From TrEMBL:
Localization of this protein: Cell inner membrane
Organism domain of life: Bacteria
One function term, GO molecular function aspect: transmembrane transporter activity
Protein source organism: Halanaerobium congolense
Record's keyword terms, sorted: Cell inner membrane, Cell membrane, Membrane, Transmembrane, Transmembrane helix, Transport
Any Gene Ontology biological process: C4-dicarboxylate transport
Family named by the database record: Belongs to the TRAP transporter small permease family.
A GO cellular component entry from the record: plasma membrane
Stated name of the protein: TRAP-type C4-dicarboxylate transport system, small permease component
Any Pfam family: DctQ
Tripartite ATP-independent periplasmic transporters DctQ component domain boundaries: 23-147
Topology versus the membrane: Multi-pass membrane protein
Keyword set includes Zinc-finger: no
Length: 178
């Protein structure tokens, strides 16, 4: 399972790099066409926005897996280690519930936008919006995998100690209360 997830992560990284490069080129072209040639491209801004949505949600799934989302752990250090482990596990349960809830409610949005087309490119809006749901799906998979590693592995200790393969955490190494 981890090999498949790592392969998916590599594909996501290449997609993000490709989309970001394309977005930079499109924005640069738009500036040149608008201010130098005085003939703005109608579609480049819209495509850049769509690429940004994909970059954001694909990147969010990688950040979740790598433990790079913003978090406040100063309160965890006030509690004994076992209680800190419980709070971390509970936070990932809440994350999973939130992601599943957003995905469930978002299906209705997909039904609505599947009949709409974008203003400039005239593509079905389901393509830009599908980036949100693919990102959410990947975040759900990563959260389930993290929870599995917490239950059957030593992910909780690794998170508390800041030493994991996926969690490249630098910084504070303050010990938790025993």
């Amino acid at each position: 399972m981890n090999k498949i997830l790592n392969l998916i992560d590599k594909v996501i990284k290449y997609l993000i790099i490709t989309f970001l490069t394309l977005m930079v080129v499109l924005v640069f072209m738009q500036v040149i066409f608008r201010f130098v040639l005085n003939n703005p491209l109608q579609w480049s801004e819209e495509l850049s926005r769509f690429l940004f949505v994909w970059i954001s949600f694909l990147g969010a799934s990688l950040a979740l897996k790598q433990g790079q989302h913003l978090g406040i752990d100063v309160f965890l250090k006030l509690f004994p280690r076992k209680l800190s482990k419980f709070f971390i596990f509970l936070s990932y349960i809440f994350i999973l519930i939130f992601l599943v809830g957003i995905s469930y409610k978002g299906v209705g949005v997909l039904n609505i936008v599947s009949r709409q087309r974008s203003a400039s490119l005239r593509i079905p809006m389901i393509y830009p919006y599908s980036g949100v749901f693919i990102g959410l799906f990947l975040m759900i998979i990563n959260t389930i995998n993290i929870l599995k590693n917490m239950v059957f592995g030593n992910a909780l200790d690794e998170i508390l100690d800041g030493k994991t393969e996926d969690y490249k955490i630098d910084g504070d190494t303050t010990k938790y209360q025993e």
